[in-house]
Amino acid sequence: EIVLTQSPATLSLSPGEGATLSCRASQRVGSYLAWYQQKPGQAPRLIIYDASNRATGIPARFTGSGSGTDFTLTISSLEPEDFAVYYCQQRSNWPLTFGGGTKVEIK
Amino acid sequence: EVQLLESGGGLVQPGGSLRLSCAASGFSFGNYAMSWVRQAPGKGLEWVSVISAGGSTFYADSVKGRFTVSRANSQNTVFLQMNSLRPEDTAIYYCAKCADYSASSAIFSWGQGALVTVPS
Known about the structure:
The complex is a heterodimer. By secondary structure, chain A is mainly β.
């Protein structure tokens, strides 16, 4: 099973600041990595698929990068609605796996 | 607009069974793989199962042999039959639409979830 390790566990930032979230895979997953955003009491929402493709309706301030084992989600300038938990997920190998999440909280 | 509506959740005793349904609309259901993902209270996301457009199925080790995913394309519905339920199966179960027909395609859209509770 591929283990996805997300860091940091919590990121405390102010609106307007940039955020950099990391996801490291225990084995190479190519570009088969997605990022999801989840707010309290809501279902997850796809942000980035296949490492760098923004999902429909996702603002340009969200950027995904990386391949192989190291991936990054960058939020260029945090808006109030961006404070949430972010999960990465790989679809390269069975079983599909998620990372443990990074909480982006308001400082 | 893609809509996914889960139903069938509830309280079930250990060892019991439950069947979740997910009614889909807004897309050509039969052309897409459908997945189930769960989230235990206060925890992260855990992939559970997927069924391809062609009917191929895959499961997490934690549910293999106990859960069965199926689909009824004529009803635009995907099911998750859960048997031999354990307290650790307590979670919100999300139905999700994949990017295309393949079971390994990205998860694109999510339902609002159905809560399954198995008391210890």
